[in-house]
Amino acid sequence: MNGYTFLALLLGWAIWYAVFYFRYQHKDTINHLRSSLKEANKELQIVQAELEEFTEQNKILKEEITKLLEKNDDLTDVVTELSKYYVHIKKAAEKTTELSKFLQEPDEETLEKIDKLSKKEEEKKFF
Asked: Which of 8, 11, 47, 113 has a 20 to 30 Å separation from 66 between CA atoms?
């Protein structure tokens, strides 16, 4: 029986060594893969956190863009109104310069009327 026990022990040891050898043969590769997996999981968590942050920032930016577009539309309306007023003011300025030209040049009819009136007043003062 000792022979069978020794043989069974020897066979058990051979099986154990085969399992140990095949299991731990690529121990460095397995450790490297595990550490790479941990690093990848950490990076994935960081990227997911950044994604969430960027998504929130994107929402805020979209809201701000819509507000700015609405303001731009309002400002466009204001600019068009101001352009209309500018055209009217420009026309009024042209008319004013034209009127000032007329006022700077003496009108003969008006001068004659003023002379007649001044003569009449002088005659009234004389008598």
From this structure: 47
Q: Which ranges constitute the DSSP H helices of the chain? A: 2-24, 27-104, 108-126
Distance from C-alpha of 113 to C-alpha of 30, rounded to nearest angstrom: 118
Cα distance between residue 47 and residue 42, in whole Å: 9
Instruction: DSSP for 24-58, please give it.
Output: HTTHHHHHHHHHHHHHHHHHHHHHHHHHHHHHHHH
From CA 37, how far away is CA 95, in angstroms rounded? 83
Q: Which of 27-31, 87-91, 113-117 has the highest mean pLDDT?
A: 87-91
Reported as a single tens digit per residue, the pLDDT across 78-98 is 899 999 999 999 999 999 988
Domain definitions of the chain by residue range: 2-126
Q: How many percent of the chain have pLDDT more than 70?
A: 96
Please determine, for residue 125, whether its predicted confidence score (pLDDT) is greater than 90: no
CA atoms within 13 A on the CB side of 45: 5
Query: For residue 95, which of 103, 106, 107 has the smallest C-alpha distance?
Result: 103
